[in-house]
Write a structure and sequence with these properties.
Blueprint: H1 4-18, H2 23-39, H3 41-44, H4 53-79, E1 88-93, H5 99-111, E2 115-120, E3 126-131, H6 137-156
Antiparallel strand pairs: 1-3, 2-3
Length: 157
Amino acid sequence: MKLVIPAVVFAMIWAAVTGSLSPLNVILGFLLGLLALWLIRRDFAGNRTAFRPLRLLALAALFVKELALSAWRVAVLVASPRMALRPGIFAFPLTVDRDIEITLLANLITLTPGTLSVDVSDDRRFLYVHALDCSDPVATRRDIADGFERKILEALR
């Protein structure tokens, strides 16, 4: 029963993405949603994560804000006559420890212009991040920890 509501949501998303609201297409979306939920069931087994829609919305709003700011910074860097780029890779110490949290953080970092998640250490304590402007890696680490990582912890714990 717990899977029915998320599967229905996935079915509606499937119908919206495919552009067809036919009954067969909605049923296909529902079945694909059930399959997806079944595949990731072990990631959520035993974890009683509270559903916090407002905190998830705050995380999405932070991402949109960071996306706009980063896109502007990258555009200014690229458009300047002297591209004073200082690219580099730094290790970001992870506070998040569950697979879903690490994956979400890595994806949010990668989707933000100017940064790219490269790898997670074998002990899952560090996320390696490539930054287009790595002139101040301490400030970048602080921005990630105070921004995305904090919002992920608030939304998923």
